[in-house]
Amino acid sequence: MMTDLDQAIASYAVGRYNDGSSLTQAGLESLSVLRLVADVVTDPDLEIDMGHLAHVRTVGDLKGWLRGLIASPAESSR
Fold it and tell me: What is the pTM of this model?
């Protein structure tokens, strides 16, 4: 069963991928990742440190980072 997060990623990804796929393999370029973040993070007052995105290499990393933004807004601004 796909989660809302999986569906959001799938809407920007190109082709087949799994959690171990690199963002490039999944067809997720910087602009599509930024759009994905805008779709997923609905709090307009949340400050997001995009520097953390530099450590996101795989689809699984991206899911973990996005879950952190959604679950713990105070932590995402660090």
Answer: 0.83
